[in-house]
Amino acid sequence: MDNEIKLQKYRKLSVVSLVTGILSVSVGILYNFLWMFIGNFLRVHIVDVGLIPKIVLPILGIVFGTAIVAVVCGSIDLKRIMKGIYTIKGKRFDITGIVLGGFFILIVVIFLFGEIFSNH
Length: 120
Description:
By secondary structure, the chain is an all-alpha fold. The chain is built from three helices and no strands.
């Protein structure tokens, strides 16, 4: 690889970090609002409650996966910027993706600890 700094307007990792960070938070929030209505409907009108984990877990896994992708892609691109391989274009995208992805991961971890240690 050349020792020259690559001049690119916005790199793919920067854009992926930003988009997946926004996607994870927005889908997570939208899913929670929709789940209030769908979950209540399923509990009231459908006797088979075992259907709920089959719906919830795959969607949360996908959203949690996009949050992890946002943090990883943003971190890789920031390291490349710090090493001088790339210019600082897209650095804000990386930071925003890391913050949004980390925020969603933190919310999920807090929710899980709340469910584990709460007295039902």
